[in-house]
Amino acid sequence: MSDQIALVVEPRSTLGKGVKQLRKAGVVPGVIHDHGKPSIHVQAEYQQLYKTYISAGKHHPVALSASGKKYTAIIKDVTFDPHYHSITHIVFGAVKANEKVEAEIPVRPKYDADNDSSPAERASLIVLAQLDVVQVKALPKDLPDELYYDAEKLVEVGDHVTVADLIVPSGVEIETEETHAVATVFEPSALAAANDDAGGAAQAGDESDVEADHESTAEDGTQADEIRPGGKEQKESKDEGHNPEKQ
Predict the structure, then answer these.
(1) Which pLDDT value is given to residue 3?
(2) Which residue, among 116, 88, 101, has the nearest Cα to 58 in the 3D structure?
(3) Which of 72, 88, 142, 216 has the least C-beta neighbours within 10 A?
């Protein structure tokens, strides 16, 4: 895990539909869930919050300062505006140093020192990434920023790596199914078919339905949704993976 990421947030009294005015003023509403205690309503300046999210993702602990109190927290959910893709709401989950937490860790290929692509790609084949993140459990200090797989194993059409092939550091438990494909080699002409396979049961029109749901969330969030972990204000944009978090 890399250097500490810190963010100062302010207490928030504006709830429900009133948060629309906060957003217009460049302020993002959010909450901190703290081990079953009443939710703490907070807000932060957009640019600072955005930089924190880009740096921490959903895996790196954030040192929060709120009204003089200190929290170590993981970003659990982020809601995005469906049109502008800007952050409209954020949920932090306070964590304890001696308790394991769940987090989403990005998955990346690892190449030989002299290469920036796999043998398959160097042979003009296509490597289709089928998994961007995995769910892990670890102590906050042990959460990695990224997990890697050996891309040199991807040589011929049909070669693939799964979650079981990830290089996992000590102290980290992988909760994603180990047989889940991470990347597979395809012929370029078969890429369209491979994309259909990776899309699973998705149907035309699903994307517009999801965006409509997030649009109503961004505009009509309620206090009840913010307080209830997993409420509609905590849904994440499909662009960011749409993975429900355990609270």
Answers:
(1) 75
(2) 101
(3) 216
> Which domains, from first to last, does the chain contain?
5-95 (2.40.240.10), 101-198 (2.170.120.20)
Q: pTM of the entire structure?
A: 0.66
Helical residues (DSSP H) of 31-136, grouped into ranges = 46-56, 119-122
Find all residues with CB under 8 Å of 237, minimum gap 6, and list them.
78, 79, 80, 82, 85, 214
Contact status, residue 20 vs residue 219, Cβ threshold 8 Å: yes
Query: Residues of 170-207 as b/e, b for ≥16 C-beta within 10 angstroms?
Result: eebebebeeeebbbbbbeeeeeeebeeeeeeeeeeeee
The list of the chain residues with pLDDT below 50 reads 201-247
pLDDT value at residue 35: 82
